[in-house]
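Sanity check

After download, print the first record. It should look like this:
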Amino acid sequence: MQRHRSWRKAAFSAVALVATLLPAYIAGEVGYRSLHGIPVLPVRHGIDPDRRALSGQDTSAMDFGSVYYYEIFRESANPVLFYEPRPGFARGAVRINSHGFRDREFTPAKPSGTMRIVVLGDSVIWGHGIVVEDTFAKQLESLLAEHFVGRFEVLNFGVSGYSLQQEIELFFERARHFDPDIVILGTSVNDLQYSSLEGDFFRGQASGILQKSYLADALAASTSYLLTRYLDVPPRYLERVVDVEFHLARAKRAAPHVGWMVLMFPLLENFQNYDLQWYHDAVIHPARELGFVVRDLRYDFQRFPEAELGIDHIHPSRFGNQIAAYAALDTLRSSGLLRVVPRSARAAGR
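Expected structure tokens:
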């Protein structure tokens, strides 16, 4: 009889605990999903049909809270990419070409006599919140055309929210077919994580709040960061960290004829007491060991007022991208990856 009462008491306590925690979990998960634009229900609902015209300079379609933002993307047939820009999408300052990347049209066949550079990356390279002319790729293209003899094309394959794994996968899936001479991998401090707002949105369409917890993922990542930062626990993000060395080696091995460069973008704040260098080192050290040309932009950016560098603490402004473009060009030339003749030298020889 005593044992029977104990089991009843334990069962009642378990039910009471679930009844107490479940509403709290649901409320927290709903709040987190709502805050980050992740669907609360298994399927997408309530997209505003408003189709007001936006000028080509209007970047509001890229606002994370915009009802149009996730329409820029579609699910990808490639399970690693998972989502991709929608070919032909046009809304305000967002124009996706017929090949599915944010740039003007290019032919896969490289024009004769043209130096072609492909740029991979996440929202920093994609150009979140800025017009395409202000992005890193387009400013680098303009610098090359302005200062050097020859024909140059710089293709912007950045995709908002991609991890380093997805960036490398996009090279195999699409970018390598454009016959690049040089590939610049523009990485930032969150590229080591598999998760992103965009990826979570598409996963959220098939995952109800009782099937997957994005709040739990965020708490796990934050806990792992604190353990790494203050207790020197290896930064594994509870199995959510990209294997940088594996993916860089895979790319280099598959395209040894291409000149490879890693360009590391910092968080655009607190340069005097910057505590994220270990993120940089997690990418830079294996890249150098594998023979990549590397430039850490932290040391270029910290020479300028932080308020001028970005539209927020992650995404560079036109000025920030201009600094990055000059720095990248300097490293490409000094490393020998880019052999070009200055226009001033040709003029002096006449």
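If your output differs, re-run the checksum step. Summary of this record's structure: The first strand starts at residue 73 and ends at 75.
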